Amino acid sequence: MVQLCMLPMRYHDRNCTIVSLADLTEVKLAAMRMEILTEIAEYDIKSEDDFYLFVVDKILNITNSGAGCLYQYDEDNHTYTLRSLMLNIQPEPITASLNYNCTCAYNSIWAEVARTKKTIVSNEYKDLMQYGPKDMSSEIYINNILALPVMYGGKLEYILGIANRENGYMIDDEAHLTIMMDAAFKKIRLHQNAKEIEQSRDTAELVFETAPIPLHIYDVESKEVITANKAFMEFVGADNYDMLLEDQSMIADESVRRMIAERLECDGYIDGIEIKINKTSLSEPAWIYANYKIIEFQGRKCCFVGFTDLTEIREAQEKVKYSEFRQTQAAYGAGLGLWTLYVDSGAMEINTIWCTQLQYNPEDLRDGDEEWGSLKGGVSGWKALLHPDDYSRVTKALDDYVDGITGEYREEYRLRCKDGSYLWTLSRGTKIEESDGSIQLTGVHVAIDKLKKTQRQLEIARLQAEKGSKR
Fold first, then answer.
1. Could you tell me which residues come within 8 angstroms of residue 180 by beta carbon, excluding any fewer than 6 positions away?
2. Phi, psi (rounded to 5 degrees) for 126
C-alpha cells in the first residue's frame, strides 16, 4: 500500500506537478495489529474453542497465510492437543480435528519447537524435509511455515503454526505474532481463572451449606453472625438470623471471650478449643469443640467457625466415674467410644462402639464378645492403629499426662479403620490413682472426621479461588 501525493507548481515557466510516493504498508499493518489486539481484549469468551479459532483466523488474515493451527502443549506428558485448525481458502474453518490429542514424532517441527522453545521459520523445501512430515494435518500440504512457541512463566503453553504465505516468512514476524499470542493467552487465562474462582466459590458455598456440622461466619469487629448453615441454625435453635446472638455473646465465660479474641489477633486461627456456649435465650448452654480461622468475607475481616457438640461427651465422661451400666448407657446415647488404660500392665479395655467407629467387628480387636473387652495387644495394639504422622505427638502427650508433666489429656489423632482409611478422633482421658498406687486412665473418644473433612474441603476451595485471582 502506498500514499500518492501530488503538488502542482511552476518550474522553468512551465506548469508541473511534484509526485511523491510513501510506502504505508507497515503503517497499515501496525493499525491492523492494534485493531486485532483490541478485538482480542474485548472478545466475550463463551466457548474457548471459538476463541482459539477467532485468534488464528485474525493471524491468518494479517499475515496473508493459507493455513494455521494452534496446539496446546502438555509439558509434563509431552503431548499436543489441537485447539484450532483453519484454512483461508475454505469458506468455513475446519473444526473436525479439534481437541485431538497426539504425541508428535521426535523430528517433527512441533517437537523441535517444544525442545528448543524457539521460533522456527522454514521457507525452502529442503529445510522442511529435516522436520519429517510436511503437513499440519493429513489434508494440508505445506510450502513454508512459521512455528511459534507461546510461553508463560518460562513454561511452554501453546505452539502456533502458520503456513503457505506467498512470499514466505521472516524471523521479524516473530515479534508481532508473539505480542498477539501473548494477549490471546492472557485473555484465555483470565477467562479460565474467572471460571475457577466461580466454581471454587460455588463449591465452598455448597460445602458450607450442606456440611453436617454447625458452621458460621461472624464479623470480627461487630461480632455479628453474617451467615450460618442449616446445621448451625438447628443446633442453636434459631428459626432465622434475628434470633441469633452475637457470636461472642454466645460464649458464656467473658475470660474465654477475651482469650479467643487475643489468640485470633495474634495467630489468626485456633485449632481445637472446648468452650461453653449459650444457644438462644430459650436454650440450655452447650459444650462445643471449635476451630476458628480469620478470613476475608464480603470485603470484611471475618472469622469462620466450625464445631462439634461435646455436651453429651462431657456428661458421659462424668458418668464414666460411676457404674459400668451408666457408662454403657451414656456411650450409646452419645455414640462414644470408651476406653480404660491400666498404666502399670499396659492392658487396655474398650467398649463395642470403640470398635464399630473404626468399622471393625468387636472380635477383630478384642477378646470376648461382651460390651467391654480387652484390646488385643493392650496399649501397643492401640499404638499400632495410630496414623504414622500422629504417633510421636500423641504417645508423648499420653506419657506426659501420666507422668504429671501436663494437667490434661486431650488429643486429636487418626486411627486406622478396617478398610485401611483413617478416622479423625478427639480423645479425652482422666487419670485415676487407686489406693494401691496403681494408675488407670479412663476416657472417651468421638469421631470428628466430618469436622476435619469439611474444613479441608472449604480450605481447598478457598486456595483454588485465591490461586485463580493471583494469576
1. 33, 36, 37, 40, 55, 58, 59
2. -65, -30
Query: What are the angstrom distances between the C-alpha of 167 and each of 61, 89, 129, 130?
Result: 15, 17, 19, 21
Residues 215 and 87 in one domain: no
Q: How far is CA 395 from CA 44, 350, 406, 420, in A?
A: 59, 18, 13, 21
Angle at which helix 173-210 crosses helix 48-63, to 10 degrees, equals: 170
Same domain, 362 and 406: yes
Percent of the chain past pLDDT 70, that is, above it, reads: 73
Question: What's the whole-number mean pLDDT along residues 251-273?
Answer: 86
Q: Does residue 404 come out as left (phi exceeding 0), alpha (psi in the -120 to 50 range) or beta?
A: left
Average pLDDT over residues 185-209: 73
With beta carbons less than 8 A apart as the criterion, state whether 285 and 276 touch.
yes
Mean pLDDT of 394-408: 92
CA nearest neighbour of 441 among 384, 399, 470: 399
* pLDDT tens digit sequence for 31-59: 777 787 888 888 888 888 889 889 888 88
Distance CA 270, CA 130 (A): 64
| Distance from the first to the final alpha carbon of the chain | 41
Per the structure, the complete domain to which residue 88 belongs is given by 43-195
| CA dist., res. 181 & res. 173, Å (int) | 12
CATH number at residue 293: 3.30.450.20
- 465 belongs to a structural domain: no
Give me the phi and psi of 13, to 5 degrees please: 60, 25
Helices 25-42/173-210 angle, 10° precision: 0
